Amino acid sequence: MEERTRAYLRGRFRDHYRRTEITPPPAANEREWGYIPWTEGPDTTMVRHRSLLELGDLSEFLVRKRPQHVYFSAGRFRDPGASSMHAKDWQSADLVFDLDADHLPSVTLGEDSYAEMLAKCKDALFRLIEFLEDDFGFEELEFVFSGGRGYHVHVRDENVLHLDREHRREIVDYVRGIGMDYEELIDTETVAGLGRKTPTERRTLEIDGGWGARTHDHLMAFVEDLLAMDDEDALERLQEFDGIGEGKATATLNAARNNREQLEAGNVTVHTAVSQLAERFASQAVERDNAPIDEPVTTDTNRLIRLPGSLHGGSGLKTVRLERDELVEFDPLDDAVPETFRGHEITVDVTRGGEVELGGDSFTVTEGDQSLPEYVAVFLMARGRAEKEKE
Amino acid sequence: MQRLHARYPFLEAARDAVATEAVDLATVVEQDDAVVDRARERVVAALEDGETGEPRREARVELLSYPVARVLVSMVEENILVRKYARAEAATAYDRFTADLEETTELKSVESTGLDLETLLSEFDLHGDVRETSGGYRIDVGTYLPLAEDCWDDEWRLVNRALADGEVPVSEAELLVLLQEAIRSRIEEGLPFDVPEVIATALEEEEAEIRDVLADLELTREIDTVVPDLFPPCMKALLDQIQKGEHLPHHSRFAITAFLANIGMTTDEIVDLYRVNSSFGEEMTRYQTDHIRGDSSPTEYSAPSCATMQSYGDCVNKDDLCERIPHPMAYYEERIDDADDDEVEDWRDESDEGQEASGD
Fold it and tell me: Are residues A297 and A152 in the same domain?
């Protein structure tokens, strides 16, 4: 990036911060703050270990320093400005989740457009929210568009703030379905055998919560599908599974027809084929329902997170705090475009052109000098794809 | 009341009782041989049998022996002793309170010296976080995770629990295990502490005896021994790669470094072990090790479990023992236990020569 480009962005970031009111996170003075200034070269050095006391008033600080990136810590400390983590004296930390398009299995890098990546990220966000709201019952949730490639969720429920790294890893594994073991989702009970003297085991899938409930949902949806088919199709569908031949297919179909209630209660002892299927659906549940969050962000109790309301120096977009009911409608490539950069054009020298979807519009940008809406120009400059025109 | 406190000396009320009796610990250790003897026995039995020995009939002796036992554990100042001792006290408490609970349900007696579940739950401030249901109990997830942190079996992992609405369902038996864990961490808390000179002097003999038992059992060896040959295959593979100078992803590096720190290696020793290749990154190793040890971070980290190793693709070359253990640490402990003394040569004992050969 040329110095004149950097100077321009610095100036425009300052203009943005002059007209923007930023709401700091709760307990802002117990957190560590850090920022990356606009400096030469690809090396970015973060200025960190700052307390709010040292930064001064947040709005004034942002106008004064108009940084490229601004962060605050998930952790709360007795002395957040101390230079070592030990001296900071950790007290608690928000539980933070990060969904990053770069890490989503569903995203094909180089193929998916920015808009497509962000859409897939939002799908993953809704899956994550299901875990957080239904399984974990969290209530103090803050949703944030990162201004870059994804979404953050900050959880501030009292009962999890004290959890340490290992405990948070358990939460990560839960949400990602890592280490899920079908056998552990099963309750085994010994019951008197029907008409026989030997007692038998009744194995029941735990359907009241967790991955057992998810597995059960997938299994029952499949059973519904089966029952809607005619016999021939249903048998054929069943035999598509490895290890299920005609005999087991017939037994399963019969179980679906005659033992529907037992299946609904999670009883997988109805037939070995049913148990086999349930196990298959357990892996499928993980595959389809897991939320591929970025593990280190959640387990690191000292992590620095981008400040909502600030500008992302790698895109020129706003980091946006979102209400739960705004999520569905939210269009990051339009709603995160700062007002400051709308309504006028500037001239830039584009070094790498291509399609740009931004501000609710789509642009085919060619290389060379040209006039573009400022938000498109800022986006391209921030991404290193354009330089400010020579004066 | 005293009998209850003698049975469960870790209770807040028991501690208060000791305090209000205005007993001066220095006088006790100097004059009350019965108490000191029982205290010594608590610690020795913890080391030798994982129990706390036969309780004395006199409640006062029994009760006072607990703080004195803590003093002894503190004087010896070995992590392994703290762990073993806390585990033994918690196991004893578990046996006692499960017996008590059975008795109260059978006899419905109010006058028993036993503990009921209600009391136990409020003792650990768990009242608000544990709810009785028709089939068992539900625990708040934020409370469950720390309590279950040392339960290594897969069934305790959150991912295998029917978590719903922020609560983890547990059976009564599981709740009792979690209470045992709560007791264990209460007992471990604050150990070892600084022992005043006067008290320490009076207990020198007992301290020496405990040290002897510790040495005899070579318990310190159980964890604080570094024999790379006996490492689990996953850790062997990771160490191998580091020594070859290969670049490891963060989680892999974390895993091996945490493992080495957990088996008792110091930061300097880990740096030495990695040093075989010059590109191992001393700076980063030091930072990470101090961090894991909790020197530069608020927490002391433990090595990842087998499940975590698996999920990161770091579980390689599984052998028979791997099938039976849930955690790389458990693998190593078992191998060290099985090994003859002759086989076990601490890497550090031979490292003097090694260091010279490798130069810097």
Answer: yes
Residue of A nearest to B144 (CA): A167
Distance CA A186, CA A208 (A): 12
Q: Are residues A23 and A80 in the same domain?
A: yes
A91 CA to chain B: closest CA distance, Å? 9
Same domain, A157 and A92: yes
Query: Is A160 in contact with B141 (Cβ distance < 8 A)?
Result: yes
| ∠ CA A143-A147-A152, rounded to 5° | 30
Contacts of A185 in chain B (CB under 8 A): 160, 162
pTM assigned to the model: 0.80
How far is C-alpha A290 from the chain's CA centre? 11
Q: Which two tokens stand for residue A71?
A: 């962060």
Please, are residues B59 and B5 in contact by the beta-carbon 8 Å criterion? yes
From the number of C-beta atoms within 10 Å of its C-beta (0-12, 13-18, 19+), residue B349 rates as exposed
Residue B244 has pLDDT above 90, yes or no: no
Q: Which two tokens stand for residue B259?
A: 């493992």
Cβ(A375)–Cβ(A342) under 8 Å?
yes
Residues A312 and A385 placed together within one structural domain of the fold: no
The range of the structural domain enclosing residue A255 comes to 182-289
Is B151 known as a binding-site position? no
Tell me the H-state helices in chain A.
Answer: 3-18, 52-55, 58-65, 85-88, 114-130, 165-176, 210-228, 231-238, 246-258, 260-264, 272-289, 295-299, 332-335, 374-382
What distance in Å separates the CA atoms of residue A357 and residue A343, rounded to the nearest whole number?
A: 16
Interface of A with B (CB under 8 A): 84-86, 89-90, 134-138, 157, 159-160, 162-167, 169-171, 173-174, 176-181, 184-185, 206-213, 295-296, 301-302
How close does chain B come to A304, measured CA to CA in Å? 15
Model pLDDT for residues A334-387, shown as the tens digit of each residue: 999 999 999 999 999 999 999 999 999 999 999 999 999 999 999 999 999 999
pLDDT in tens, A80-99: 999 888 899 999 999 999 99
Sequence-separated (6 or more) residues with CB below 8 Å from residue A44:
A36, A68, A69
Size of interface A-B (CB pairs under 8 A): 124
Mean residue pLDDT of chain A comes to 92
B303: closest chain A residue by CA: A166
Rounded to the nearest angstrom, the minimum Cα separation between B174 and chain A is 14
Sign for the pseudo-dihedral over CA of B90, B92, B95, B98: negative
Q: What share of chain A is helix, strand, coil (3-state, %, to 5)?
A: 40, 20, 35
Q: pLDDT tens, A288-304?
A: 999 999 999 999 999 99
Contact A210 B160 (CB under 8 A): yes
- The yes-or-no answer on residue A100 being catalytic is yes
What b/e sequence results for B264-292 when a residue is b if at least 16 CB atoms lie within 10 Å of its CB, and e otherwise?
Answer: bbebebbbbbbbeeeebbeeebbebbbbb
Ordered by where they begin, the domains of chain B are 3-213 (1.20.930), 228-349 (no CATH)
d(CA B301, CA B288): 11
Give yes or no for a contact between A151 and A99, defined as CB atoms under 8 angstroms apart.
yes
CB B290, CB B270: distance < 8 Å = no
**ipTM of this complex prediction, to 2 decimal places:** 0.93
User: Residue A374 in contact with residue A341, Cβ under 8 Å?
Assistant: yes
- Say which residues have a Cβ less than 8 Å from residue A235's Cβ, sequence separation at least 6: A246, A249, A250, A253
Structural domain count, chain A: 3
* Residue contact A179–B164, C-beta within 8 A: no
Q: Give yes or no: A102 in active site.
A: no
> Is B143 in Cβ contact with A171 (below 8 Å)?
no
Q: Does B133 touch chain A (CB under 8 A)?
A: no
Q: What is the CATH number of the domain that holds A151?
A: 3.90.920.10
Measured in angstroms, the CA of B158 and the nearest CA of chain A are apart by 6
**Cα distance between the two ends of chain B:** 64
Local confidence band at A272 (pLDDT 50, 70, 90 cut-offs): confident
